């Protein structure tokens, strides 16, 4: 624990990871004390430790959650970021109502952590916030929000499809990518030509392959060759063109 408190940034990650694996009551108690330090750096490190205490099985989750939660009211933005990240790792569903109010925060990093934290939370409120964050001014926030809507949930509504379709013209290539994958997973024909480009460029793109398999209605348990996927996408695109012209 002394290493975490005193080490330079480049050595902290390894020390915190070791404490995660240890996951003992002693580590818990000392990390809780760090969250109460007058030094914001140490408060943040305390949150990082508590966020993933216990590997592979989490230890003392209730105690960790209770210790980190007050840090959402911290005066230091970096500490708030660490707290949001830690809480969603401890229990994302339980953390959601506490972190949703930060979706409008002026700090890009805080909104980014909200998008990360809500990605796998399958509630209407979390989904609504993610849809809003898909139009955020920061590309990293948009990317994670689009990933959360497109890949981390299976909800399929007009509003979701419209938001994913809008992502296809985003200035950021990662946001565009997540829009393509999200639409493909929902068997939306607007993803067809984009999936063709993705699979031509990288035949082993797992997410593009998965989206194409779903869009085409193939058996997800079978291994389908990329060339077969490309051929089926091409035929589907031609069918849509012919239907539109007719």
Structure write-up:
This protein has 246 residues and is mainly alpha-helical. The protein is built from 14 helices and no strands. The chain has helices at 2-6, 9-22, 25-35, 40-51, 61-68, 77-99, 108-118, 124-133, 139-150, 158-167, 173-185, 192-201, 206-216, 226-245. The protein is elongated and about 65 Å long.
Which helices and strands, and how do they pair?
Layout: H1 2-6, H2 9-22, H3 25-35, H4 40-51, H5 61-68, H6 77-99, H7 108-118, H8 124-133, H9 139-150, H10 158-167, H11 173-185, H12 192-201, H13 206-216, H14 226-245
Helix pairs in contact: 2-4, 3-4, 4-5, 4-6, 5-6, 6-7, 7-9, 8-9, 9-11, 10-11, 11-13, 12-13, 12-14, 13-14
Describe the structure in brief.
This protein is 69% helix and 0% strand.
Helix content: 55-70%
Shape designation = elongated
How does the major sheet shape up?
Answer: none
User: How many extended strands?
Assistant: 0
Order of helices and strands: HHHHHHHHHHHHHH
* Helix run count: 14
Query: Strand portion, in percent?
Result: under 5%
End-to-end distance, in Å?
Answer: 71 Å
Compute the average pLDDT: 94
Q: Would you identify the regions where 5 or more consecutive residues have pLDDT less than 50?
A: none
Structural class: mainly alpha
Question: Could you tell me the radius of gyration in angstroms?
Answer: 21 Å
């Amino acid at each position: 624990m002394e290493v975490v408190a005193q080490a330079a940034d480049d050595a902290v990650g390894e020390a915190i990871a070791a404490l995660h694996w240890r996951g003992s009551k002693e580590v818990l108690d000392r990390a809780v004390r760090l969250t109460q330090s007058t030094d914001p750096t140490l408060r943040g490190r305390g949150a990082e430790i508590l966020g993933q205490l216990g590997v592979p099985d989490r230890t003392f989750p209730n105690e960790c959650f209770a210790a980190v939660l007050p840090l959402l009211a911290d005066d230091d933005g970096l500490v708030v970021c660490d707290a949001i990240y830690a809480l969603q790792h401890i229990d994302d569903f339980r953390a959601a109502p506490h972190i949703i109010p930060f979706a409008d925060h002026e700090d890009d990093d805080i909104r980014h952590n909200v998008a990360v934290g809500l990605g796998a939370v399958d509630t209407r409120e979390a989904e609504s916030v993610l849809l809003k964050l898909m139009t955020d001014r920061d590309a990293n926030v948009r990317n994670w929000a689009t990933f959360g809507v497109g890949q981390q949930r299976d909800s399929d509504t007009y509003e979701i499809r419209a938001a994913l379709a809008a992502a296809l013209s985003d200035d950021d290539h990662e946001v565009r990518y997540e829009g393509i994958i999200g639409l493909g997973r929902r068997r939306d024909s607007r993803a067809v030509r984009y999936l063709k480009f993705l699979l031509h460029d990288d035949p082993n793109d797992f997410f593009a392959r998965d989206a194409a398999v779903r869009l085409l209605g193939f058996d997800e348990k079978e291994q389908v060759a990329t060339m077969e996927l490309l051929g089926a996408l091409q035929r589907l695109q031609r069918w849509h063109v012919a239907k539109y012209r007719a």
